[in-house]
UniProtKB/TrEMBL annotation:
Gene3D superfamilies: 1.10.287.130, 3.30.450.40, Histidine kinase-like ATPase, C-terminal domain (3.30.565.10), PAS domain (3.30.450.20). Residues 325-525 form the Histidine kinase domain. It catalyses: ATP + protein L-histidine = ADP + protein N-phospho-L-histidine. It is an enzyme of class 2 (transferase). This is histidine kinase. Keywords: ATP-binding, Kinase, Nucleotide-binding, Phosphoprotein, Transferase, Two-component regulatory system. It holds the Pfam family HisKA. Its EC number is 2.7.13.3. Residues 261-312 form the PAC domain. It comes from Paenibacillus cineris. SUPFAM superfamilies: ATPase domain of HSP90 chaperone/DNA topoisomerase II/histidine kinase, Homodimeric domain of signal transducing histidine kinase, PYP-like sensor domain (PAS domain). InterPro entries: GAF-like_dom_sf, HATPase_C_sf, HATPase_dom, His_kinase_dom, HisK_dim/P_dom, HisK_dim/P_sf, PAS, PAS-assoc_C. The keyword NADP does not apply.
Length: 525
């Protein structure tokens, strides 16, 4: 049926029900004050947009009496705008905010619009009730994003001012309202995504336009790239290609419009290297044209350090396996050779007897270091005095120190008993003192200071030797990392292992040409 047939059918239906066209019905269905406030709150954004377009529309037809109404999807009147005379006229009929204006009120554009979900108009005597015969009413539904009808927007004017273009104008206004609402929702969604992206404190983010000019960035990006000033507004509108660390990858995206994912970067501008993972993604508009480029940086410095630790652990495992093999393959024949030479004695006429025995002792010491590294050692803790252990070590090393013209001075400021494995702590002291003597090829001084502080017995070994640069100091204790021609890099690794098993602390500082300080702390008692 066309509109006229539908209107005629509805009017016939009301007559068959016995309704009197001269008596406008009492509209009893309405929202309570609380329900109306809740609905107005729900529709607020739609009503604000409608009001914006309505005001523009009303300003173009000044002098023409027009009323604009908004209902929800059930026909409850939410808002009325327009000529005061029209507002008073419909109020006398009981049509006020909160009332339900549906099919029970007779043939009208609002109930027909909601029933058939499309624009409708009712002019003059097309209304069933005579009270509305002097009016021309136009209604159009407005929709949610999913297409469901959310309510109606209606125009009401005198029948003398009726015009066929008013329904077309109303439909255009509804289209504008729906587009504006969709645009607002999309913008709100994009704003939320933008804020989530830019406010992420675990990654640096920079956004550029299609030409590579910076539109936005977050503080984390500023910090990662160490940009001067710390104010992102200084860089907005500038080319991202000026940022040397990331520029080659943005340049690739600009040239080829292809994403760069998982690029590992190393920043060597500071004393310690920093590592980042970079993603650069092109963003295209609906037409497939490049409109934005987004770059994200994640700091993976700690991950790289963890990888280094894992590599060192693998070296340590290998060193342990190698140590066990060396111990089995060398110690037995070494003991046999040493025993036979000792049995012959120094009077046997063997040339360089003392030198041979000295070298055999040194080989035995190297094998012993490998055994400490390769085999789990049972730790026997007991209370002991550091100075007593240190004196025993000094008595073992004093000859070597004298041969190298090295003076050792020991100062005890305060001593407390420690719980330790005596033999392992002796090994620690011996390794540190050997390193200190070797760092004094032309002779020098080693100062040993004992003091108690912060629950630890602290022992400092201070030499005035050749010292170490920062890059050597950072790797000290790694297996097979050494600066000595005859070294294996195991001595300090054993020191670190023993100190850790005693729940102690170790700190090494050094400066080339000035010397090295090794400070350890062993828990008191």
């Amino acid at each position: 049926m066309d509109d006229q047939q539908i209107i005629a059918a509805f009017n016939a239906h009301y007559r068959q029900r016995g309704l009197d066209p001269a008596k406008f019905p009492v509209l009893s269905k309405r929202y309570t004050t609380e329900e109306l406030e809740e609905r107005l709150s729900f529709y607020k954004e739609y009503i604000d947009i409608i009001l914006f377009f309505v005001n523009k529309f009303l300003s173009t037809i000044q002098g023409t009496p027009i009323l604009v109404t908004v209902t929800d999807q059930w026909g409850y009147l939410l808002e009325c705008y327009g000529e005061p005379m029209f507002l008073e006229a419909i109020a006398e009929l009981g049509i006020t905010k909160g009332v339900r204006y549906n099919e029970e009120t007779g043939t009208g554009s609002v109930p027909l619009c909601l029933r058939f979900k499309r624009p409708f108009q009712t002019l003059g005597e097309e209304h069933f009730f005579e009270a509305l015969h002097g009016m021309a009413c136009y209604s159009a539904p407005f929709h949610r994003e999913d297409g469901a009808v959310l309510g109606t927007l209606s125009l009401m004017t005198g029948v003398d001012s009726a015009h066929p273009h008013l329904l077309t104008l109303l439909c255009t206004m509804v289209d504008s309202v729906e587009r504006e609402m969709l645009l607002r929702r999309n913008n709100a969604h994009l704003h939320t995504l933008n804020q989530v992206l830019l406010e992420a404190n675990y990654q640096g983010v920079v956004v550029t336009d299609a030409a590579g000019r910076i539109i936005d960035m977050n503080d984390q990006y500023l910090r990662m790239l160490r940009l001067d000033g710390g104010d992102k507004h200084l860089y907005l509108g500038t080319p991202v290609l000026e940022h040397r660390l990331v520029s080659p990858y943005f340049e690739r995206v600009l040239a080829r419009q292809e994403e760069c994912i998982g690029v590992e970067l190393q920043d060597t501008r500071m004393n310690s290297d920093s590592y980042y993972m970079l993603d650069v993604l092109p963003v295209f508009d609906m037409g497939g044209c490049l409109c934005r480029i987004i770059g994200t940086l994640r700091d993976i410095t700690e991950m790289k350090r963890t990888e280094e630790v894992l590599r060192n652990t693998e070296k340590l495992v290998f060193a342990g396996q190698l140590a066990v093999g060396i111990a089995h393959e060398i110690r037995n024949p070494l003991t046999t050779v040493k025993g036979l030479i000792q049995l012959a004695g120094p009077t046997s006429g063997l040339r360089h007897y003392d030198l041979i025995m000295s070298e055999l002792d040194r080989m035995n010491l190297i094998v012993g270091e490998f055994l400490i590294l390769g085999k789990p050692q049972e730790i026997r803790f007991r209370e002991d005095w550091c100075m007593t252990i240190l004196q025993e070590v000094l008595s073992l090393i004093e000859i070597e120190a004298a041969k190298n013209n090295v003076r050792i001075r020991c100062t005890c400021i305060r001593e407390e008993k420690i719980s330790c494995d005596r033999n392992q702590i002796k090994q620690v002291f011996l390794n540190i003192l050997k390193n200190a003597i070797q760092a004094l090829p032309g002779g020098g001084r080693i100062d040993i200071v004992l003091e108690a502080d912060g629950g630890y017995q602290r022992i400092r070994f201070i030499d005035n030797g050749i010292g170490m640069p920062e890059e050597v100091l950072e790797r000290i204790g790694e297996p097979f990392h050494t600066t000595k021609l005859e070294g294996y890099g195991l001595g300090m690794m054993i020191v670190k292992k023993i100190i850790a098993s005693h729940r102690g602390i170790l700190n090494i500082t050094s400066e080339p040409g000035k010397g090295t300080t090794v400070e350890m702390g062993l828990p008191i008692g």
